[in-house]
Amino acid sequence: MHYRSAKSYSLYSHFQDKEGLFKALIERVTIVSFQGIFCTEDLHGEAAILLREIAEIYLTKVADNPEYLALFRLIITESQRFPELAKLYTQTVIQRGRLLLSQYLASHPELGITYPEATAQIFFGSLVSYVMVQEMLYGKEMMPLSRDRILDSLMSLVLAHTSKDH
Question: Residue 51 belongs to what domain range?
Answer without folding.
Answer: 18-158
